[in-house]
Write a structure and sequence with these properties.
Elements: E1 4-9, H1 17-30, E2 35-39, H2 60-64, E3 85-88, H3 94-99, H4 105-110, E4 118-122, H5 129-136, E5 140-145, H6 149-164, E6 169-177, H7 186-193, E7 197-202, H8 205-212, H9 217-220, H10 225-238, H11 255-266
Parallel strand pairs: 1-4, 1-5, 2-3, 2-4, 5-6, 6-7
The structure holds adenosine-5'-diphosphate and magnesium ion.
Length: 267
């Protein structure tokens, strides 16, 4: 099999690309799909940070610098993550970023598509060369937007860029949605962007909390509103039917709660 390569992009920074890449990737892997998530935000890499891979010596930086192979930069069997999820993090150092040649990304992606179901590429914001190349290597593009005009206006530039590069835009993920009545709703966002909104992801404190626990929210708080939305997004991608897993409906007990419980048992 040859993987379908999705690039997760946005115009504006901080809309939730890394969070979406990690949680969509984890959800696809939980569905048994062999999924690779790759951090192509080589300047502001933080995918590894969200799952405790930040100390990895070999990353995409070294591969793009020609000093390591892609196999060496691919991490699998990561504790607490599904077996079928592989992660290619980027490094945190400025030197690593300077030495990395983004033009090599095409070869890197060509080298990993065989044998996987999905490759998700976390890309940088903006319209620099570093963000154009991840669009070029994609089969499909997903835009992560927030319900505000600045985010949508910037997303429209990526849409135009995708069209110029002949990359089909699968649709938008509308992230950080609150119940604020002044916020743009899904239909308005879809109309303004001229594309489908694949899923709306609510603003959810569990996202940040899970980042602190270095675990994807879909695993750390499986019944939380954002988790359910990310899992729905995954079924939207695979075309399967979404089934809510009631056994995983409860929020996983946090470390502090576990600690308190163990203390009360000792009394
Ligand atoms: N649905 C959400 N609810 C709450 N916080 C979120 C949500 N999505 C993202 N965040 C937070 O927003 C910040 C930016 O998200 P991130 O995924 O790093 O964005 P990007 O990769 O686009 O820069 C992070 O602190 C993240 O925890
Ligand atoms: Mg990011």
């Amino acid at each position: 099999m040859t993987a379908c390569v999705y690039t997760i992009a946005s115009g504006k920074g901080g809309t939730g690309k890394t969070t979406t890449t990690l949680n969509l990737g984890t959800s696809l892997a939980m569905m048994g799909k062999k999924t690779i998530i790759l951090d192509a935000d080589i300047g502001m890499a933080n995918l590894g940070l969200l799952i405790g891979l930040e100390k990895s010596k070999i990353t995409l930086h070294e591969v793009l610098a020609g000093t390591a192979t892609i196999e060496e930069a691919t991490y699998s069997g990561i504790e607490g993550l599904p077996e079928s999820l592989e992660v290619i993090p980027s490094g945190l150092s400025l030197k690593g970023f300077q030495d990395a040649d983004i033009d090599k990304l095409k070869d890197v992606v060509a080298g990993i598509v065989e044998g996987a179901d999905y490759v998700l590429i976390d890309s940088p914001a903006g319209i620099t060369k570093d963000s154009v190349i991840p669009l070029l290597v994609a089969n499909r593009v997903i835009l992560v937007v927030n319900p505000d005009l600045a985010s949508l206006s910037d997303a429209l530039k990526i849409k135009a860029l995708g069209e110029m590069l002949d990359r089909p835009i699968e649709g938008a993920v509308l992230n950080r949605v609150t119940s604020d009545k002044t916020e743009l709703d899904k239909n308005k966002v879809s109309e303004l962007l001229g594309m489908k909104v694949l899923e709306t992801i609510p603003e959810d404190a569990n996202v940040r909390q899970s980042a602190a626990f270095k675990s994807p929210v879909v695993l750390n708080a499986p019944g939380s509103p954002s988790s359910i939305a990310f899992k729905k997004l995954a079924t939207r991608i695979t075309g399967e039917e979404f089934k809510e897993d009631t056994t995983k409906g409860k929020k996983k007990t946090g470390l502090i709660a576990k600690f308190k419980k163990s203390l009360s048992r000792k009394k």
